[in-house]
C-alpha cells in the first residue's frame, strides 16, 4: 500500500503544534485547515503544507452589520394554522419560532409584502381585513369566518447566522457572540464584502487556499421556540429573499412574486415539491446573481495569487454546481461533507473545477468524541460507504474538520485514519485518473434533472428520513455501481426526447412529488415519448409510485409498460386474478433477501403475462414486464443494502435486454465488487464489509477465479490475472 504523502487535509487549532506535526506525518497530510471556531498558530502556518483558511464573506463582522441591521438577510415565514372561532382572530407571528434567530420586518410595508390566507378556502384576505399590533408581533383579523383556519405569511430578518447558531448550541459556546449575517444584495453590505475581502487578502499572505466556508445565502434552516431545528431544506432558497431581490426580479421577469410563492402552503418549496414555474424562475434569477457576485470574490483571490475553494454546505445557495452559471465563477476547487456514496459522487462529479475534496465523518466535535463512545465505528461506516463511490469517480482529496485535540484522545481512531488515508492514496496510484468500466448508461428521470445531480430524494445531507430512504437507496446503489448515471428532467424529454445512448430510465418516488412527477404525467406527449422508447427496445424501471397521477382510469400512467397499477379504492369491485409468482427469473437469480423499505401497498398485476417476482399480503412488490421490444421492472421500494444493490443491478441489465453482459468485471458475492480500469490494465476486487469474504470473480472476458478477501480488503490485479503492483 502507498506510503506517499499527499491528498489529505488536516484540521488544526491553537496550541496544537506538536500534535499537528505528528498527525501530518501519520496521515500523510499535505494541507492544513482551520475550522469554524478555531484558529491556526503561526508555527502551524509555517509547516511544509498548503494552508487553507476559512473565509466568511457574509458573517463574522458584527461591528459592521450592527450599524446596518436593515441589511440582514430576509426570509418569508408562515405562522401555524390558527382556527377562528369568532369573527376576530389574533395570530402571534413568532410563537413557534426562535426569537433570538429572527426579527419581524416592519421596515417594508407589511400590507404590500405579507399575505393573510384563509387556508380553508385558499382565499387571500385583502389588507383591509387585517391589522398589526407591532408591540407583540401579532396580526389581528377582523372579518374572519368562524371555523376556518388562517395563516400569516410575513417577512423576517435573520439576525443570527443559522450555522453558527447550530455550532454554538452543539458545542455549548456559552457567551461567544452571535454572528449576525448580512446580504450582498444590499448596498452597504455589497461594498463591505469586497472591501473586507481585499483587506483580508493583504493581511493573510501565508494563506494558500481561501476556503469559502460560506458565500451569501444559507440554505433554509429555521429554529423553533425551543432552539431545535424547525425546518431544514438543504436546497431551500427561502433565505435569499429580500425586498431588493423581489423588486429586481419583478423588473426583469415582468411579474411580481408573492409571499405564497415562497411559503408554498407551508411546504416552503421543498425539493420534494413539484417546482412551480415561478419558483424555477426565481432559482435561476438568484443563481445568476450569486454567480456574478461570487466571481468578483474569486477574481480577488486569484489576483492575490491564491486558490479559491467553495464549501458545498452552508451558504451555498445560488451557486448550483450543476447549474448553467457555475463554470463562470472560476472556483479552483469544491469541498463537501461526505456522508455516503451518494454525497461523495455529488462532490466528485462536479464539473469546472481543478480538484474536488471530501470532508469525511465523523466531524471532530464532542457529540461524537466523548468518553464511552468509539468514533472508529462511524469512521469505518463512512469510509466503506464512500469507498464504493471513490472507486467509480474518486474525489481528488480527503480530509476532516473540527477540533483535532478531541480526536487525538482516541488512539484507535488516529490509527484507523492512518490506514484509510494510505488506502485512499493507494486507490489513486492504481487508478491513475483512468475511467472505470461501465456496462450500461442509466438516467434518473424527475422534475429537477441535472440541476440536482446526485441530490434527488435528499432531505438534509445524507440523513435518514422515513419517507425518503426507500428511494435514496437507488442513488446509493448506483453511486458504486459499474454503470454511467445521468439525471434527466421531464422538460428535456419533452423538448429533446431520450438520448439513444441511454439504456435504462428510472422514475421513482411517491406520487405527486417532484421525483415521481405528479401532474406532468397528464401530458400526453411525455407519455407517448416514454412508451415509444420502451416499445422500441428501451428499458424502464419504476420504484414506488412511478408515473403516478390519477387520470383516465389509471394511477400509473405507464401501467401498460410496468404491467402493474395501484389500487386506490376506486376499483375494488374489479377482481384481480393475476398473482402467480414466477418460479425463476434473471432478476432474482442471486436469491438474496430483498427489503422494500416502507414499500408501496395495493399494487396489482394487470396482465397474465406479467412476471411476478415477489407477491405477499395480496400485493405485488417486484415484477417484470415486456412491452414491444422493450422491458420494464417495477419495485415497491429500494433502501440501500448489498442485496438490494444487486437486485437493482440485475433489474437494470434485464430492462436493457443485456443479461448476457452482466458478468463482465463481476463478483458473485453481493458483499463484494469488481471495478476495472481498462486503460490502466488493472482491476480491483473489493470487500465492502468488515468480515472475511470469498467470491467468484468474472473478468472482462468471462473467465472466472476465486478471490479470498480479508475484512474490507481491496485486492488489485492486472488484467492478465497477475497481482498488480
Automatic annotation (TrEMBL):
Domain Lacto-N-biose phosphorylase-like N-terminal TIM barrel: 6-437
Gene3D superfamilies documented for this protein: 3.40.50.880, Glycosidases, Golgi alpha-mannosidase II, Immunoglobulins
InterPro entries with a match to the protein in the record: Class_I_gatase-like, Glyco_hydro_b, Ig-like_fold, Lact_bio_phlase-like_N, Lacto-N-biose_phosphorylase, LBP_C, LBP_M
Residue ranges of every copy of the Lacto-N-biose phosphorylase central domain listed in the record: 441-659
Domain annotation Lacto-N-biose phosphorylase C-terminal: ranges: 665-716
Pfam families: Lact_bio_phlase, LBP_C, LBP_M
Entry keyword set: Glycosyltransferase, Transferase
Enzyme Commission number(s): 2.4.1.211
GO molecular function list: 1,3-beta-galactosyl-N-acetylhexosamine phosphorylase activity; 1,4-alpha-oligoglucan phosphorylase activity
Cited SUPFAM superfamilies: Class I glutamine amidotransferase-like
Organism domain of life: Bacteria
Protein name: 1,3-beta-galactosyl-N-acetylhexosamine phosphorylase
Organism this protein belongs to: Paenibacillus mellifer
Amino acid at each position: 500500500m502507498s506510503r506517499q504523502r499527499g491528498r489529505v487535509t488536516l484540521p488544526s487549532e491553537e496550541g496544537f503544534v506538536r500534535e499537528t506535526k505528528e498527525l501530518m506525518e501519520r496521515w500523510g497530510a499535505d494541507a492544513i485547515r482551520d475550522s469554524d471556531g478555531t484558529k491556526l498558530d503561526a508555527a502551524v502556518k509555517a509547516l511544509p503544507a498548503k494552508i487553507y483558511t476559512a473565509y466568511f464573506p457574509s458573517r463574522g463582522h458584527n461591528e459592521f452589520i450592527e450599524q446596518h441591521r436593515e441589511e440582514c438577510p430576509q426570509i418569508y415565514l408562515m405562522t401555524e394554522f390558527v382556527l377562528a372561532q369568532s369573527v376576530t382572530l389574533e395570530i402571534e407571528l413568532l410563537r413557534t419560532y426562535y426569537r433570538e434567530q429572527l426579527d419581524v420586518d416592519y421596515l417594508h410595508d407589511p400590507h404590500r409584502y405579507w399575505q393573510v390566507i384563509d387556508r380553508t378556502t385558499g382565499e387571500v384576505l385583502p389588507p383591509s381585513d387585517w391589522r398589526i399590533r407591532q408591540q407583540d408581533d401579532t396580526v389581528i383579523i377582523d372579518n374572519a369566518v368562524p371555523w376556518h383556519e388562517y395563516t400569516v405569511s410575513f417577512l423576517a430578518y435573520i439576525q443570527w447566522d443559522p450555522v453558527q447558531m447550530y455550532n454554538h448550541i452543539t458545542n455549548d459556546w456559552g457567551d461567544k457572540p452571535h454572528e449576525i449575517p448580512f446580504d450582498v444584495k444590499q448596498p452597504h453590505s455589497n461594498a463591505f464584502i469586497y472591501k473586507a475581502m481585499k483587506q483580508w487578502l493583504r493581511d493573510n499572505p501565508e494563506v494558500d487556499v481561501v476556503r469559502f466556508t460560506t458565500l451569501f445565502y444559507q440554505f433554509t434552516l429555521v429554529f423553533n421556540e425551543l432552539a431545535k431545528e424547525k425546518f431544514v431544506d438543504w436546497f431551500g432558497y427561502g433565505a435569499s429573499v429580500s425586498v431588493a431581490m423581489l423588486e429586481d426580479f419583478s423588473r426583469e421577469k415582468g411579474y411580481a412574486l408573492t409571499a405564497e410563492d415562497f411559503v408554498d402552503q407551508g411546504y416552503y418549496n421543498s425539493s420534494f415539491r413539484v417546482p412551480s414555474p415561478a419558483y424555477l424562475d426565481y432559482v435561476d434569477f438568484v443563481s445568476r446573481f450569486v454567480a456574478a457576485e461570487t466571481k468578483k470574490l474569486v477574481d480577488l483571490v486569484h489576483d492575490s495569487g491564491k486558490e479559491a475553494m467553495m464549501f458545498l454546505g452552508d451558504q451555498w445557495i445560488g451557486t448550483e454546481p450543476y447549474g448553467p452559471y457555475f463554470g463562470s465563477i472560476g472556483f479552483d476547487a469544491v469541498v463537501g461533507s461526505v456522508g455516503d456514496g451518494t454525497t461523495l459522487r455529488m462532490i466528485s462529479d462536479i464539473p469546472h473545477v481543478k480538484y474536488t475534496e471530501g470532508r469525511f465523518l465523523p466531524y471532530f466535535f464532542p457529540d461524537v468524541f466523548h468518553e464511552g463512545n468509539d468514533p472508529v465505528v462511524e469512521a469505518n461506516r463512512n469510509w466503506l460507504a464512500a469507498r464504493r463511490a471513490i472507486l467509480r469517480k474518486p474525489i481528488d482529496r480527503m480530509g476532516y474538520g473540527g477540533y483535532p485535540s478531541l480526536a487525538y484522545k482516541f488512539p484507535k481512531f488516529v490509527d484507523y485514519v492512518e490506514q484509510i488515508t494510505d488506502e485512499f492514496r493507494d486507490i489513486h496510484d492504481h487508478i491513475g485518473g483512468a475511467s472505470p468500466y461501465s456496462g450500461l448508461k442509466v438516467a434518473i428521470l424527475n422534475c429537477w434533472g441535472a440541476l440536482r445531480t446526485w441530490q434527488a430524494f435528499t432531505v438534509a445531507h445524507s440523513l435518514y428520513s422515513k419517507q425518503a430512504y426507500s428511494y435514496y437507496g437507488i442513488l446509493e446503489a448506483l453511486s458504486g455501481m459499474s454503470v454511467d448515471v445521468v439525471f434527466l428532467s421531464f422538460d428535456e424529454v419533452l423538448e429533446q426526447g431520450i438520448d439513444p445512448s441511454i439504456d435504462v430510465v428510472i422514475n421513482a418516488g411517491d406520487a405527486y412529488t417532484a421525483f415521481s412527477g405528479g401532474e406532468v404525467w397528464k401530458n400526453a406527449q411525455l407519455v407517448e415519448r416514454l412508451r415509444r422508447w420502451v416499445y422500441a427496445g428501451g428499458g424502464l424501471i419504476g420504484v414506488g409510485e412511478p408515473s403516478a397521477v390519477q387520470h383516465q382510469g389509471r394511477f400509473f400512467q405507464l401501467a401498460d409498460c410496468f404491467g402493474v397499477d395501484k389500487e386506490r379504492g376506486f376499483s375494488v369491485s374489479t377482481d384481480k386474478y393475476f398473482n402467480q409468482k414466477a418460479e425463476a427469473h434473471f432478476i432474482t437469480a442471486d436469491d438474496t433477501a430483498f427489503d422494500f423499505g416502507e414499500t408501496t401497498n395495493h399494487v396489482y398485476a394487470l396482465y397474465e403475462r406479467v412476471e411476478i417476482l415477489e407477491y405477499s399480503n395480496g400485493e405485488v412488490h417486484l415484477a417484470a414486464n415486456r412491452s414491444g421490444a422493450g422491458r420494464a421492472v417495477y419495485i415497491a421500494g429500494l433502501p440501500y443494502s448489498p442485496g438490494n444493490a444487486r437486485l437493482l443491478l440485475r433489474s437494470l441489465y434485464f430492462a436493457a435486454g443485456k443479461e448476457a453482459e452482466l458478468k463482465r468485471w463481476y463478483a458473485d458475492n453481493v458483499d463484494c465488487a469488481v471495478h476495472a480500469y481498462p486503460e490502466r490494465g488493472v482491476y480491483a476486487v473489493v470487500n465492502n464489509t468488515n468480515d472475511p469474504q470469498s467470491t467468484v470473480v468474472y473478468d472482462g472476458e468471462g473467465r472466472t477465479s476465486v478471490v479470498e478477501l480479508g475484512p474490507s480488503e481491496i485486492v488489485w490485479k492486472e488484467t492478465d490475472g497477475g497481482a498488480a503492483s
